[in-house]
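User: Sequence in, structure out. Go.
Assistant: Echoing your sequence, followed by the C-alpha coordinates.
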Amino acid sequence: MIRTRWTVPARLSRSDPRSAETLDGHPTSVLLPALVLAALAALLSALGAVLPVVDGAVRGYASAPLLIVLAVVPPVLAIAFVLRGRPAAGAGVLAGVAALAPGQAVLDLQFLADPSSVSRPELYRPEVFALPGPGVGFWLLLAGHVVAVAAGVAGVRALGPRPESGVADRGLLPIGLVAAGVAAVGVMMAPFAGDDAFLPVGSAFERPALVLAGSLLLAFALPVAAGLAISSGSDGLSTGGLLGLGLAAATVALPELGSGIAVDGIGVSAGPIVVLVGAAGLAVVAFLPSEGREGLPVRLGGDATGEASADPGADDTAANYATGDFAAANYAAGKYEAAHYAAANYAADKAGVARAGDEAGEARLPGSPGLRRATGVLGLVTMLAAIAGTFTDQVVVTGELGGPQSPWRWSLLVAGLLVGVLGAAMFVPVLAPVLRPVLSVAWAGVPLAATAVLTTAITATELGAGLSPGQGVVWTSVATVAAAATACCSVVAGMVERDDSEEAAEVPGPNLITPLVAGGILAIGGFGTPSIVSPDYVEPALWSNFGTPSWGLLLALLTVLGACFLAPRSRPARATGLLAGATCLAVLRLLALPLTGDQITGAHAGVGWWLALGCVVALAIATVLAPRGTIHTRKTPSGSIR
Protein backbone atom coordinates (compact mmCIF):
# COMPACT_ATOMS: atom_id res chain seq x y z
CA MET A 1 0.00 0.00 0.00
CA ILE A 2 1.02 3.63 -0.36
CA ARG A 3 1.97 4.86 3.08
CA THR A 4 2.38 8.45 4.17
CA ARG A 5 4.69 9.71 6.90
CA TRP A 6 3.38 12.97 8.31
CA THR A 7 5.76 15.70 9.34
CA VAL A 8 4.92 18.49 11.76
CA PRO A 9 3.71 20.89 9.03
CA ALA A 10 1.55 18.18 7.45
CA ARG A 11 -0.10 17.29 10.74
CA LEU A 12 -0.75 20.93 11.55
CA SER A 13 -2.28 21.51 8.14
CA ARG A 14 -4.82 18.75 8.73
CA SER A 15 -5.61 18.89 12.42
CA ASP A 16 -4.44 22.23 13.77
CA PRO A 17 -5.68 25.69 12.76
CA ARG A 18 -2.10 26.95 12.96
CA SER A 19 -0.11 26.30 9.82
CA ALA A 20 3.62 25.70 9.77
CA GLU A 21 4.12 29.25 8.55
CA THR A 22 2.11 30.60 11.48
CA LEU A 23 4.20 28.57 13.87
CA ASP A 24 7.40 29.94 12.45
CA GLY A 25 5.97 33.44 12.30
CA HIS A 26 5.27 33.60 16.04
CA PRO A 27 7.91 31.34 17.59
CA THR A 28 8.28 33.20 20.86
CA SER A 29 4.63 32.78 21.74
CA VAL A 30 4.90 29.02 21.18
CA LEU A 31 8.12 28.40 23.11
CA LEU A 32 7.91 31.31 25.53
CA PRO A 33 7.22 29.16 28.64
CA ALA A 34 10.07 26.81 27.78
CA LEU A 35 12.47 29.70 27.11
CA VAL A 36 11.54 31.34 30.40
CA LEU A 37 12.22 28.07 32.23
CA ALA A 38 15.53 27.68 30.39
CA ALA A 39 16.58 31.21 31.35
CA LEU A 40 15.63 30.49 34.96
CA ALA A 41 17.65 27.26 34.89
CA ALA A 42 20.67 29.16 33.55
CA LEU A 43 20.31 31.79 36.26
CA LEU A 44 20.08 29.17 39.00
CA SER A 45 23.07 27.25 37.64
CA ALA A 46 25.15 30.43 37.29
CA LEU A 47 24.36 31.50 40.85
CA GLY A 48 25.12 27.99 42.08
CA ALA A 49 28.49 28.19 40.36
CA VAL A 50 29.31 31.48 42.06
CA LEU A 51 28.02 30.79 45.57
CA PRO A 52 29.67 28.14 47.80
CA VAL A 53 28.30 24.61 47.41
CA VAL A 54 29.40 23.67 50.93
CA ASP A 55 30.11 25.77 54.00
CA GLY A 56 33.49 27.45 53.69
CA ALA A 57 34.15 26.05 50.22
CA VAL A 58 37.44 26.98 48.54
CA ARG A 59 37.75 26.46 44.78
CA GLY A 60 40.71 24.79 43.18
CA TYR A 61 40.86 27.50 40.51
CA ALA A 62 38.88 30.51 39.28
CA SER A 63 36.18 28.47 37.58
CA ALA A 64 33.21 30.83 37.98
CA PRO A 65 33.50 32.52 34.53
CA LEU A 66 33.71 29.16 32.75
CA LEU A 67 30.76 27.72 34.67
CA ILE A 68 28.63 30.79 34.02
CA VAL A 69 29.33 30.64 30.28
CA LEU A 70 28.47 26.94 30.19
CA ALA A 71 25.20 27.63 31.99
CA VAL A 72 24.19 30.50 29.70
CA VAL A 73 25.13 29.12 26.27
CA PRO A 74 22.26 26.56 25.87
CA PRO A 75 19.36 29.00 26.44
CA VAL A 76 21.10 31.64 24.32
CA LEU A 77 21.45 29.14 21.47
CA ALA A 78 17.81 28.11 21.86
CA ILE A 79 16.66 31.73 21.74
CA ALA A 80 18.83 32.35 18.67
CA PHE A 81 17.18 29.43 16.87
CA VAL A 82 13.72 30.72 17.81
CA LEU A 83 14.48 34.25 16.62
CA ARG A 84 15.65 32.81 13.30
CA GLY A 85 12.29 31.12 12.87
CA ARG A 86 13.39 27.61 13.88
CA PRO A 87 11.42 26.83 17.04
CA ALA A 88 11.88 23.08 16.65
CA ALA A 89 15.67 23.49 16.79
CA GLY A 90 15.33 25.70 19.87
CA ALA A 91 13.18 23.10 21.57
CA GLY A 92 15.71 20.43 20.59
CA VAL A 93 18.52 22.32 22.32
CA LEU A 94 16.49 22.48 25.53
CA ALA A 95 15.61 18.78 25.25
CA GLY A 96 19.24 17.78 24.69
CA VAL A 97 20.36 19.67 27.79
CA ALA A 98 17.49 18.18 29.79
CA ALA A 99 18.54 14.64 28.85
CA LEU A 100 21.75 14.88 30.91
CA ALA A 101 20.34 16.98 33.75
CA PRO A 102 19.23 14.00 35.91
CA GLY A 103 22.70 12.47 35.79
CA GLN A 104 24.30 15.80 36.68
CA ALA A 105 21.87 16.20 39.58
CA VAL A 106 22.82 12.78 40.98
CA LEU A 107 26.51 13.71 40.70
CA ASP A 108 25.84 16.90 42.64
CA LEU A 109 24.08 14.93 45.40
CA GLN A 110 27.50 13.67 46.48
CA PHE A 111 28.06 17.12 48.01
CA LEU A 112 25.22 16.27 50.37
CA ALA A 113 26.39 12.72 51.13
CA ASP A 114 30.16 13.21 51.50
CA PRO A 115 31.80 16.40 50.15
CA SER A 116 35.28 15.01 50.81
CA SER A 117 34.89 12.38 48.07
CA VAL A 118 33.33 14.54 45.35
CA SER A 119 36.49 15.34 43.33
CA ARG A 120 35.03 18.54 41.87
CA PRO A 121 37.82 21.11 42.37
CA GLU A 122 36.01 23.62 40.14
CA LEU A 123 33.46 23.92 42.96
CA TYR A 124 35.22 22.66 46.07
CA ARG A 125 38.77 21.62 46.86
CA PRO A 126 39.05 20.28 50.41
CA GLU A 127 42.19 21.19 52.30
CA VAL A 128 41.48 19.19 55.45
CA PHE A 129 39.49 16.03 56.11
CA ALA A 130 36.08 17.36 57.10
CA LEU A 131 32.39 16.98 56.30
CA PRO A 132 31.02 20.51 55.84
CA GLY A 133 27.30 21.00 55.38
CA PRO A 134 25.75 21.92 52.04
CA GLY A 135 25.80 25.58 51.07
CA VAL A 136 23.29 27.67 49.18
CA GLY A 137 25.15 27.03 45.92
CA PHE A 138 24.38 23.32 46.14
CA TRP A 139 20.63 23.90 46.39
CA LEU A 140 20.76 26.36 43.50
CA LEU A 141 22.60 23.86 41.30
CA LEU A 142 20.07 21.17 42.15
CA ALA A 143 17.17 23.50 41.39
CA GLY A 144 18.82 24.46 38.10
CA HIS A 145 18.91 20.82 36.97
CA VAL A 146 15.24 20.32 37.87
CA VAL A 147 14.18 23.46 35.99
CA ALA A 148 16.33 22.43 32.99
CA VAL A 149 14.37 19.18 32.75
CA ALA A 150 11.11 21.12 32.95
CA ALA A 151 12.31 23.45 30.17
CA GLY A 152 13.15 20.53 27.89
CA VAL A 153 9.80 18.86 28.44
CA ALA A 154 7.92 22.13 27.91
CA GLY A 155 9.85 22.85 24.72
CA VAL A 156 9.12 19.49 23.11
CA ARG A 157 5.46 19.56 24.13
CA ALA A 158 5.07 23.02 22.64
CA LEU A 159 5.83 21.66 19.17
CA GLY A 160 2.62 19.67 19.13
CA PRO A 161 2.21 16.53 16.97
CA ARG A 162 5.36 15.04 15.55
CA PRO A 163 6.08 12.20 13.13
CA GLU A 164 6.85 8.70 14.24
CA SER A 165 10.28 8.15 15.66
CA GLY A 166 12.60 6.13 13.51
CA VAL A 167 11.22 7.51 10.23
CA ALA A 168 13.84 9.99 9.09
CA ASP A 169 17.60 10.34 9.20
CA ARG A 170 18.25 6.63 9.65
CA GLY A 171 21.51 7.05 7.79
CA LEU A 172 22.84 9.34 10.52
CA LEU A 173 21.74 7.12 13.38
CA PRO A 174 24.83 4.85 13.52
CA ILE A 175 27.16 7.86 13.28
CA GLY A 176 25.32 9.69 16.05
CA LEU A 177 25.30 6.63 18.28
CA VAL A 178 29.04 6.18 17.83
CA ALA A 179 29.69 9.83 18.76
CA ALA A 180 27.41 9.55 21.78
CA GLY A 181 29.05 6.26 22.73
CA VAL A 182 32.49 7.88 22.64
CA ALA A 183 31.26 10.60 25.00
CA ALA A 184 29.69 7.94 27.24
CA VAL A 185 33.02 6.12 27.49
CA GLY A 186 34.72 9.35 28.53
CA VAL A 187 32.11 9.99 31.22
CA MET A 188 33.03 6.70 32.91
CA MET A 189 36.78 7.45 32.86
CA ALA A 190 38.81 9.33 35.45
CA PRO A 191 38.21 13.12 35.32
CA PHE A 192 41.88 13.92 35.94
CA ALA A 193 45.12 12.30 37.05
CA GLY A 194 47.15 12.86 40.19
CA ASP A 195 47.92 11.66 43.69
CA ASP A 196 46.38 14.42 45.82
CA ALA A 197 44.98 12.78 48.96
CA PHE A 198 42.14 15.31 49.10
CA LEU A 199 41.05 14.71 45.50
CA PRO A 200 40.24 11.02 44.94
CA VAL A 201 41.10 10.00 41.39
CA GLY A 202 39.69 7.05 39.51
CA SER A 203 37.07 5.88 37.06
CA ALA A 204 33.38 5.98 37.90
CA PHE A 205 33.55 2.37 39.11
CA GLU A 206 36.15 3.32 41.70
CA ARG A 207 34.20 6.23 43.16
CA PRO A 208 31.27 6.51 45.60
CA ALA A 209 27.87 5.02 44.78
CA LEU A 210 26.22 8.35 43.93
CA VAL A 211 29.04 9.29 41.57
CA LEU A 212 28.81 5.88 39.91
CA ALA A 213 25.03 6.17 39.60
CA GLY A 214 25.26 9.67 38.13
CA SER A 215 27.96 8.63 35.67
CA LEU A 216 25.91 5.63 34.57
CA LEU A 217 22.89 7.87 34.03
CA LEU A 218 25.00 10.15 31.85
CA ALA A 219 26.53 7.22 29.95
CA PHE A 220 23.15 5.67 29.19
CA ALA A 221 21.39 8.97 28.47
CA LEU A 222 23.91 10.02 25.81
CA PRO A 223 23.26 7.29 23.20
CA VAL A 224 19.55 7.06 24.02
CA ALA A 225 18.99 10.81 23.65
CA ALA A 226 21.10 10.93 20.48
CA GLY A 227 19.07 8.11 18.95
CA LEU A 228 15.77 9.76 19.84
CA ALA A 229 16.91 13.10 18.43
CA ILE A 230 18.11 11.67 15.12
CA SER A 231 15.02 9.50 14.66
CA SER A 232 12.58 12.26 15.66
CA GLY A 233 11.64 12.90 12.02
CA SER A 234 12.08 16.66 12.45
CA ASP A 235 15.07 18.48 10.99
CA GLY A 236 15.02 21.18 13.65
CA LEU A 237 14.44 18.85 16.58
CA SER A 238 17.24 16.57 15.42
CA THR A 239 19.73 19.41 14.89
CA GLY A 240 18.89 21.19 18.12
CA GLY A 241 18.76 17.97 20.14
CA LEU A 242 22.23 16.90 19.07
CA LEU A 243 23.66 20.37 19.69
CA GLY A 244 22.03 20.54 23.13
CA LEU A 245 23.34 17.08 23.97
CA GLY A 246 26.84 18.07 22.87
CA LEU A 247 26.70 21.25 24.96
CA ALA A 248 25.53 19.30 28.00
CA ALA A 249 28.38 16.81 27.55
CA ALA A 250 30.85 19.70 27.24
CA THR A 251 29.43 21.16 30.45
CA VAL A 252 30.52 17.97 32.21
CA ALA A 253 33.96 17.71 30.58
CA LEU A 254 35.29 21.27 30.37
CA PRO A 255 35.41 21.94 34.15
CA GLU A 256 37.26 18.63 34.60
CA LEU A 257 39.71 19.56 31.87
CA GLY A 258 40.20 22.97 33.47
CA SER A 259 40.89 21.30 36.81
CA GLY A 260 43.57 19.11 35.26
CA ILE A 261 45.23 22.16 33.71
CA ALA A 262 44.91 24.74 36.47
CA VAL A 263 44.94 22.86 39.79
CA ASP A 264 48.30 22.06 41.37
CA GLY A 265 48.95 18.42 42.15
CA ILE A 266 46.72 16.94 39.47
CA GLY A 267 47.00 16.64 35.71
CA VAL A 268 44.93 16.14 32.60
CA SER A 269 43.54 12.66 31.95
CA ALA A 270 41.96 11.15 28.86
CA GLY A 271 38.42 11.16 30.28
CA PRO A 272 37.30 14.75 29.59
CA ILE A 273 39.14 14.78 26.26
CA VAL A 274 37.21 11.71 25.12
CA VAL A 275 33.95 13.34 26.20
CA LEU A 276 34.77 16.48 24.22
CA VAL A 277 35.61 14.39 21.14
CA GLY A 278 32.21 12.74 21.42
CA ALA A 279 30.51 16.11 21.94
CA ALA A 280 32.24 17.49 18.85
CA GLY A 281 31.06 14.43 16.94
CA LEU A 282 27.46 15.12 17.98
CA ALA A 283 27.79 18.70 16.75
CA VAL A 284 29.14 17.49 13.40
CA VAL A 285 26.30 14.97 13.02
CA ALA A 286 23.81 17.77 13.76
CA PHE A 287 24.82 19.52 10.52
CA LEU A 288 25.47 16.53 8.29
CA PRO A 289 23.23 16.44 5.19
CA SER A 290 20.63 13.73 4.97
CA GLU A 291 17.96 12.82 2.47
CA GLY A 292 15.46 12.68 5.28
CA ARG A 293 15.98 16.32 6.19
CA GLU A 294 13.88 17.80 3.46
CA GLY A 295 10.89 17.98 5.76
CA LEU A 296 9.05 15.57 3.43
CA PRO A 297 8.39 11.87 3.67
CA VAL A 298 11.26 9.84 2.30
CA ARG A 299 9.17 7.00 0.89
CA LEU A 300 5.56 6.04 0.49
CA GLY A 301 5.67 2.49 1.71
CA GLY A 302 6.77 -1.00 0.87
CA ASP A 303 9.88 -2.70 2.06
CA ALA A 304 13.11 -1.32 3.38
CA THR A 305 14.42 -0.72 -0.13
CA GLY A 306 11.95 2.10 -0.62
CA GLU A 307 9.81 0.38 -3.25
CA ALA A 308 6.17 1.51 -3.24
CA SER A 309 3.65 -1.30 -2.96
CA ALA A 310 0.08 -1.58 -4.18
CA ASP A 311 -2.71 -1.81 -1.64
CA PRO A 312 -6.38 -0.82 -1.38
CA GLY A 313 -5.25 1.77 1.16
CA ALA A 314 -4.03 3.80 -1.80
CA ASP A 315 -7.63 4.87 -2.31
CA ASP A 316 -7.29 7.08 0.74
CA THR A 317 -4.37 8.90 -0.84
CA ALA A 318 -6.32 9.15 -4.08
CA ALA A 319 -9.23 10.66 -2.20
CA ASN A 320 -6.91 13.39 -0.95
CA TYR A 321 -6.00 14.19 -4.54
CA ALA A 322 -9.60 14.12 -5.75
CA THR A 323 -10.83 16.46 -3.03
CA GLY A 324 -8.03 18.94 -3.68
CA ASP A 325 -6.41 18.47 -0.27
CA PHE A 326 -3.12 19.78 -1.59
CA ALA A 327 -1.43 19.91 1.84
CA ALA A 328 -1.95 16.19 2.38
CA ALA A 329 -1.17 15.35 -1.25
CA ASN A 330 2.02 17.37 -1.01
CA TYR A 331 3.40 15.15 1.73
CA ALA A 332 1.91 11.96 0.37
CA ALA A 333 3.52 12.39 -3.04
CA GLY A 334 6.77 13.99 -1.94
CA LYS A 335 6.69 17.16 -4.10
CA TYR A 336 4.09 19.90 -4.43
CA GLU A 337 4.28 19.84 -8.21
CA ALA A 338 3.60 16.12 -8.33
CA ALA A 339 0.66 16.50 -5.95
CA HIS A 340 -0.79 19.35 -8.01
CA TYR A 341 -0.50 17.32 -11.19
CA ALA A 342 -2.14 14.31 -9.57
CA ALA A 343 -5.00 16.41 -8.17
CA ALA A 344 -5.77 17.82 -11.61
CA ASN A 345 -5.59 14.53 -13.46
CA TYR A 346 -6.64 11.85 -10.99
CA ALA A 347 -10.17 11.49 -12.35
CA ALA A 348 -8.83 10.87 -15.86
CA ASP A 349 -5.69 8.90 -15.09
CA LYS A 350 -4.92 7.02 -11.88
CA ALA A 351 -1.35 6.64 -13.01
CA GLY A 352 -0.60 9.94 -11.28
CA VAL A 353 -0.61 8.15 -7.94
CA ALA A 354 1.81 5.56 -9.25
CA ARG A 355 4.07 8.33 -10.60
CA ALA A 356 4.03 10.01 -7.22
CA GLY A 357 4.91 6.72 -5.57
CA ASP A 358 7.80 6.21 -7.97
CA GLU A 359 9.16 9.68 -7.27
CA ALA A 360 8.95 9.17 -3.54
CA GLY A 361 10.55 5.78 -3.89
CA GLU A 362 13.69 7.46 -5.21
CA ALA A 363 14.42 9.04 -1.82
CA ARG A 364 15.60 5.97 0.00
CA LEU A 365 16.94 5.76 3.51
CA PRO A 366 18.82 2.84 5.04
CA GLY A 367 16.19 1.04 7.08
CA SER A 368 16.36 -1.97 9.36
CA PRO A 369 19.19 -3.71 7.39
CA GLY A 370 21.46 -0.70 7.87
CA LEU A 371 20.57 -0.45 11.55
CA ARG A 372 21.21 -4.16 12.03
CA ARG A 373 24.64 -3.77 10.45
CA ALA A 374 25.39 -0.87 12.81
CA THR A 375 24.26 -3.07 15.69
CA GLY A 376 26.61 -5.77 14.45
CA VAL A 377 29.56 -3.39 14.35
CA LEU A 378 28.88 -2.27 17.93
CA GLY A 379 28.51 -5.90 19.01
CA LEU A 380 31.90 -6.76 17.54
CA VAL A 381 33.46 -3.73 19.25
CA THR A 382 31.96 -4.96 22.52
CA MET A 383 33.49 -8.40 21.99
CA LEU A 384 36.95 -7.03 21.22
CA ALA A 385 36.89 -4.74 24.25
CA ALA A 386 35.72 -7.60 26.48
CA ILE A 387 38.53 -9.83 25.20
CA ALA A 388 41.05 -7.06 25.88
CA GLY A 389 39.57 -6.53 29.35
CA THR A 390 39.91 -10.25 30.06
CA PHE A 391 43.56 -10.62 29.12
CA THR A 392 44.98 -7.28 30.29
CA ASP A 393 45.82 -6.44 33.89
CA GLN A 394 43.02 -5.04 36.01
CA VAL A 395 45.52 -4.18 38.74
CA VAL A 396 49.20 -3.25 38.49
CA VAL A 397 51.77 -2.78 41.22
CA THR A 398 54.62 -0.33 41.40
CA GLY A 399 56.90 -0.87 38.43
CA GLU A 400 54.12 -1.86 36.05
CA LEU A 401 54.09 -5.45 37.32
CA GLY A 402 50.87 -7.39 36.96
CA GLY A 403 48.73 -7.58 40.07
CA PRO A 404 46.06 -10.05 41.17
CA GLN A 405 43.64 -11.20 38.47
CA SER A 406 39.88 -11.06 38.82
CA PRO A 407 38.26 -14.50 39.11
CA TRP A 408 35.31 -13.14 37.12
CA ARG A 409 37.30 -12.35 33.99
CA TRP A 410 36.24 -15.58 32.27
CA SER A 411 32.60 -14.61 32.72
CA LEU A 412 33.41 -11.35 30.94
CA LEU A 413 35.03 -13.30 28.11
CA VAL A 414 31.98 -15.56 27.67
CA ALA A 415 29.56 -12.62 27.77
CA GLY A 416 31.65 -10.67 25.28
CA LEU A 417 31.91 -13.63 22.90
CA LEU A 418 28.14 -14.11 23.07
CA VAL A 419 27.51 -10.49 22.11
CA GLY A 420 30.17 -10.69 19.40
CA VAL A 421 28.68 -13.83 17.83
CA LEU A 422 25.21 -12.29 17.84
CA GLY A 423 26.70 -9.09 16.41
CA ALA A 424 28.37 -11.02 13.60
CA ALA A 425 25.01 -12.62 12.81
CA MET A 426 23.62 -9.15 12.06
CA PHE A 427 25.61 -9.21 8.81
CA VAL A 428 23.82 -12.37 7.64
CA PRO A 429 20.45 -11.33 6.14
CA VAL A 430 18.79 -14.65 6.97
CA LEU A 431 19.90 -14.69 10.62
CA ALA A 432 19.76 -10.99 11.47
CA PRO A 433 15.96 -10.59 11.90
CA VAL A 434 15.81 -13.78 13.99
CA LEU A 435 18.75 -13.10 16.33
CA ARG A 436 18.43 -9.34 16.72
CA PRO A 437 15.86 -9.64 19.58
CA VAL A 438 18.25 -12.04 21.33
CA LEU A 439 20.98 -9.39 21.19
CA SER A 440 18.55 -6.78 22.55
CA VAL A 441 18.54 -8.75 25.81
CA ALA A 442 21.82 -10.67 25.91
CA TRP A 443 23.91 -7.46 25.89
CA ALA A 444 23.26 -7.10 29.64
CA GLY A 445 25.58 -10.04 30.26
CA VAL A 446 28.58 -7.79 29.59
CA PRO A 447 27.86 -5.25 32.38
CA LEU A 448 26.80 -8.19 34.58
CA ALA A 449 30.31 -9.64 34.32
CA ALA A 450 32.15 -6.32 33.96
CA THR A 451 30.96 -4.91 37.27
CA ALA A 452 32.22 -8.05 39.01
CA VAL A 453 35.58 -7.82 37.22
CA LEU A 454 36.02 -4.16 38.13
CA THR A 455 35.53 -4.97 41.81
CA THR A 456 39.07 -6.34 41.90
CA ALA A 457 40.55 -3.03 40.75
CA ILE A 458 38.31 -1.03 43.08
CA THR A 459 39.26 -3.14 46.11
CA ALA A 460 42.96 -3.04 45.26
CA THR A 461 42.88 0.73 44.87
CA GLU A 462 41.23 1.11 48.26
CA LEU A 463 43.94 -1.03 49.86
CA GLY A 464 46.72 1.10 48.39
CA ALA A 465 50.11 -0.55 48.98
CA GLY A 466 51.34 0.45 45.53
CA LEU A 467 48.36 -1.07 43.72
CA SER A 468 46.66 0.90 40.95
CA PRO A 469 44.17 0.20 38.14
CA GLY A 470 45.58 -1.29 34.95
CA GLN A 471 44.60 -1.11 31.30
CA GLY A 472 42.05 -3.84 31.87
CA VAL A 473 39.85 -1.36 33.72
CA VAL A 474 39.69 0.88 30.66
CA TRP A 475 38.88 -1.98 28.28
CA THR A 476 36.25 -3.41 30.60
CA SER A 477 34.59 -0.01 30.89
CA VAL A 478 34.67 0.39 27.10
CA ALA A 479 33.03 -3.02 26.73
CA THR A 480 30.25 -1.99 29.11
CA VAL A 481 29.47 1.23 27.28
CA ALA A 482 29.75 -0.44 23.86
CA ALA A 483 27.28 -3.11 25.02
CA ALA A 484 24.82 -0.40 26.05
CA ALA A 485 25.22 1.29 22.65
CA THR A 486 24.64 -2.07 20.98
CA ALA A 487 21.40 -2.46 22.91
CA CYS A 488 20.20 1.02 21.94
CA CYS A 489 20.90 0.44 18.25
CA SER A 490 19.28 -2.99 18.36
CA VAL A 491 16.13 -1.62 19.99
CA VAL A 492 15.83 1.14 17.38
CA ALA A 493 16.32 -1.46 14.64
CA GLY A 494 13.47 -3.43 16.16
CA MET A 495 11.21 -0.38 16.10
CA VAL A 496 11.98 0.12 12.41
CA GLU A 497 11.39 -3.57 11.68
CA ARG A 498 7.96 -3.37 13.25
CA ASP A 499 7.17 -0.19 11.33
CA ASP A 500 8.25 -1.76 8.02
CA SER A 501 6.49 -5.07 8.65
CA GLU A 502 3.30 -5.82 6.73
CA GLU A 503 2.52 -8.99 8.70
CA ALA A 504 -0.68 -9.39 10.66
CA ALA A 505 -0.10 -8.82 14.36
CA GLU A 506 -0.01 -12.24 16.07
CA VAL A 507 0.99 -12.64 19.70
CA PRO A 508 1.75 -15.77 21.74
CA GLY A 509 -1.11 -17.60 23.39
CA PRO A 510 -1.99 -17.76 27.10
CA ASN A 511 0.07 -20.95 27.64
CA LEU A 512 3.13 -18.71 27.74
CA ILE A 513 2.04 -16.86 30.87
CA THR A 514 2.75 -19.59 33.44
CA PRO A 515 6.43 -20.18 32.58
CA LEU A 516 6.95 -16.44 32.17
CA VAL A 517 5.64 -15.68 35.65
CA ALA A 518 7.69 -18.53 37.10
CA GLY A 519 10.79 -17.38 35.26
CA GLY A 520 10.37 -13.80 36.45
CA ILE A 521 9.92 -14.81 40.09
CA LEU A 522 12.88 -17.19 39.97
CA ALA A 523 14.99 -14.48 38.29
CA ILE A 524 14.39 -12.16 41.24
CA GLY A 525 15.82 -14.80 43.55
CA GLY A 526 18.51 -15.99 41.16
CA PHE A 527 19.97 -12.53 40.55
CA GLY A 528 19.13 -11.16 44.00
CA THR A 529 20.79 -13.74 46.23
CA PRO A 530 24.39 -15.09 46.20
CA SER A 531 25.06 -17.90 43.74
CA ILE A 532 28.49 -18.74 45.17
CA VAL A 533 29.02 -19.55 48.84
CA SER A 534 32.43 -19.91 50.45
CA PRO A 535 33.73 -19.78 54.04
CA ASP A 536 36.13 -16.97 53.10
CA TYR A 537 34.08 -15.16 50.47
CA VAL A 538 30.74 -13.35 50.55
CA GLU A 539 29.44 -12.69 47.05
CA PRO A 540 27.79 -9.28 46.53
CA ALA A 541 24.09 -9.53 45.74
CA LEU A 542 21.01 -7.32 45.66
CA TRP A 543 19.55 -8.17 49.05
CA SER A 544 22.81 -8.53 50.98
CA ASN A 545 26.38 -7.21 50.76
CA PHE A 546 25.46 -4.68 48.09
CA GLY A 547 28.54 -3.68 46.11
CA THR A 548 29.74 -2.79 42.64
CA PRO A 549 28.72 -6.18 41.15
CA SER A 550 25.22 -5.59 42.49
CA TRP A 551 24.69 -2.89 39.86
CA GLY A 552 25.32 -5.45 37.12
CA LEU A 553 22.98 -7.91 38.81
CA LEU A 554 20.28 -5.25 39.04
CA LEU A 555 20.66 -4.34 35.36
CA ALA A 556 20.52 -7.99 34.29
CA LEU A 557 17.47 -8.63 36.47
CA LEU A 558 15.61 -5.64 35.07
CA THR A 559 16.48 -6.75 31.53
CA VAL A 560 15.13 -10.26 32.16
CA LEU A 561 11.96 -8.91 33.73
CA GLY A 562 11.53 -6.50 30.82
CA ALA A 563 11.82 -9.37 28.34
CA CYS A 564 9.23 -11.36 30.30
CA PHE A 565 6.91 -8.35 30.25
CA LEU A 566 7.28 -7.65 26.53
CA ALA A 567 7.18 -11.23 25.25
CA PRO A 568 3.38 -11.72 25.54
CA ARG A 569 2.91 -8.43 23.66
CA SER A 570 5.29 -9.30 20.81
CA ARG A 571 4.96 -11.39 17.68
CA PRO A 572 5.93 -15.04 18.22
CA ALA A 573 9.28 -14.74 16.43
CA ARG A 574 10.24 -11.61 18.38
CA ALA A 575 8.99 -13.10 21.66
CA THR A 576 11.11 -16.19 21.04
CA GLY A 577 14.19 -14.02 20.54
CA LEU A 578 13.54 -11.95 23.65
CA LEU A 579 13.08 -15.03 25.81
CA ALA A 580 16.13 -16.71 24.30
CA GLY A 581 18.17 -13.64 25.28
CA ALA A 582 16.74 -13.72 28.81
CA THR A 583 17.63 -17.42 29.02
CA CYS A 584 21.20 -16.55 27.99
CA LEU A 585 21.44 -14.07 30.86
CA ALA A 586 20.24 -16.68 33.34
CA VAL A 587 22.76 -19.17 31.91
CA LEU A 588 25.55 -16.61 32.38
CA ARG A 589 24.49 -16.37 36.01
CA LEU A 590 24.79 -20.16 36.29
CA LEU A 591 28.21 -20.22 34.62
CA ALA A 592 29.65 -17.94 37.31
CA LEU A 593 30.22 -20.96 39.57
CA PRO A 594 32.13 -23.24 37.17
CA LEU A 595 34.07 -20.33 35.67
CA THR A 596 35.21 -18.81 38.98
CA GLY A 597 34.73 -21.53 41.59
CA ASP A 598 38.21 -23.02 41.18
CA GLN A 599 39.73 -19.65 42.12
CA ILE A 600 37.67 -19.29 45.32
CA THR A 601 38.57 -21.69 48.11
CA GLY A 602 35.67 -23.87 49.18
CA ALA A 603 33.23 -22.37 46.67
CA HIS A 604 29.95 -24.20 46.15
CA ALA A 605 26.47 -23.44 44.86
CA GLY A 606 24.35 -21.10 46.92
CA VAL A 607 20.61 -20.55 46.96
CA GLY A 608 20.89 -18.04 44.13
CA TRP A 609 22.50 -20.64 41.85
CA TRP A 610 19.63 -23.09 42.28
CA LEU A 611 17.06 -20.35 41.75
CA ALA A 612 18.92 -19.29 38.60
CA LEU A 613 18.81 -22.91 37.41
CA GLY A 614 15.04 -22.93 37.87
CA CYS A 615 14.88 -19.61 36.02
CA VAL A 616 16.77 -21.13 33.07
CA VAL A 617 14.35 -24.05 32.90
CA ALA A 618 11.25 -21.81 33.09
CA LEU A 619 12.53 -19.36 30.48
CA ALA A 620 13.61 -22.21 28.18
CA ILE A 621 10.09 -23.63 28.34
CA ALA A 622 8.66 -20.20 27.58
CA THR A 623 11.06 -19.88 24.63
CA VAL A 624 9.79 -23.17 23.20
CA LEU A 625 6.14 -22.15 23.67
CA ALA A 626 6.54 -18.62 22.27
CA PRO A 627 6.39 -19.54 18.54
CA ARG A 628 2.96 -21.10 19.04
CA GLY A 629 0.92 -17.97 18.54
CA THR A 630 -2.84 -18.35 19.00
CA ILE A 631 -4.09 -14.77 19.17
CA HIS A 632 -4.50 -12.92 15.87
CA THR A 633 -5.09 -9.19 15.59
CA ARG A 634 -5.13 -6.92 12.59
CA LYS A 635 -2.14 -4.59 12.46
CA THR A 636 -3.12 -0.99 11.89
CA PRO A 637 -0.92 0.37 9.08
CA SER A 638 1.53 2.73 10.76
CA GLY A 639 1.68 6.13 9.12
CA SER A 640 -1.21 5.57 6.72
CA ILE A 641 -3.67 8.39 6.00
CA ARG A 642 -6.49 6.53 7.70
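User: And one key feature?
Assistant: The first helix runs from residue 8 to 15.
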